[in-house]
Amino acid sequence: MTDLVVVSLERWDDVWRRNQILLAGLLGADPDLRVLVVEPPADPLHALAGRRRPRRGAGLVARGRADGVPAGRLWTYQPTKWLPRRADAFVGTSADTRMAHTVLQVARRLHLHAPVLWVNDPAGATLARVSSWPSLYDITDDWLAAHRSPAQLARLRDDEDFLMATCRTVVVCSAALARTKGAIRPVRLVPNAVDLDAFRRPRARPRDLPPGRVALYAGTVHPDRVDVGLCVRLGDELRTTGLGTLVLVGPALVSEQDRTLLHDAGVQVLGPRPYATVPAYLQHADVLVVPHVVDPFTDSLDPIKLYEYQAVARPVVSTPVAGFRDLHHPAVHVLDSRAFVDGVTSVLVGPPLPPGPLPQTATIPTWAERVTEMQDVLVGLRATT
């Protein structure tokens, strides 16, 4: 492998997710690999409509050691979506097509003449259409099962149908996705994992953790995943009983109304923290929680926290979501939303645990193993060209 263009669901930042971890590992393993990550576009008009400060896309950015990757071999590109899709009929071409052609120009500028296209965001179907690049569809969420408007679902369905029909390889991250997407065509299962050494190395208690006992959630706080009402009930119970504090660590993509409800319930929403610091938060939690919605969308996930929580071996209370409901361990309590709050408080009334990772004997897959699996996928894809 020498060149990759990756259409990502997230921006490249210090809150690392699956694709950033895998790409960093692939870059470290192959000194000839070059990568262009196409980030979600900036949308100034949408920002204005939401009363947020509008901004244009960051454009082309060269990444290096400060971003956790070798210098000179990874670039990110964030386009700008200047017009809403409803204007496409007047302009004559779609916004997605215009941005796809811009990505082709950026790739040529970087001399990425025959890359493999790695599509994580289904919107990357447009780039797959206009390019002749061999393509990989990496499915990490079943967006067709998410709560979206009819227009959004129709667009997602069209994009996914094209990708499923034309991509040379389809990778999925969960057993549920292997069943649903594998019923359509052959897929390759590459689940998530953990950097075991990083999460097992003892860390000092983060200064922004509140005093006293802590129930902690690590991950993106989004209504697609997190049951905000359940968090409010748990936070209120911990506050009124004095048992501790519910802390949410991760990007908080919730409405102002939900933020107010969480704040009033005593929940501390810390927001995103750099990936390298996340182990410390987990190691110093008295109980790790997974207050997830249980529905077809969350059933499609393979939560990275499943592996990270196991690595630190702290007590866990989870709703019966994919991954956690299949763990059979005395320290993992899987409860429905009605019993969830009582399950957390029953852990917190017990004696405090020592800080740091607790002893664990489970065999947990590592990201190094997953990087090797993705190398095999990419080499096989390139061999078919």
TrEMBL record:
Example of a GO MF term: transferase activity
Keywords: Transferase
Top-level taxon of origin: Bacteria
Name of the protein in its database record: Glycosyl transferase family 1
Organism: Sanguibacter antarcticus
